[in-house]
Amino acid sequence: MTTFDDRERAFETKFARDEEMAFRVIARRNRLLGQWAAAKMGLTPEETDAYAKAVVQADFEEAGDEDVIRKLLGDLTAAGVDTDEAAVRQALEAQTVEARRQLIEAQ
Prior knowledge:
Blueprint: H1 2-41, H2 45-58, H3 66-78, H4 85-106
């Protein structure tokens, strides 16, 4: 029975590690998205940092990416930046790849 117990523990450990990595990728992605949007809006470095943190916090409103997309699109539109939902979704995909790359390199 110990080999089955060992396998079960190994699968649980891998699942926990994968979930933690997924959370870290999403948090890093949201920070990068905030920096991307702040650059489009012409914010100062201090404002950029605060805005990136606000984007990370916005992700906790509901499950999925729609809350982040809604925030970015609303803020960019309010700042007078000519953009649409497709551009925000494209940036989301690009920043997901970049966030994953950064985290893998950091290990």
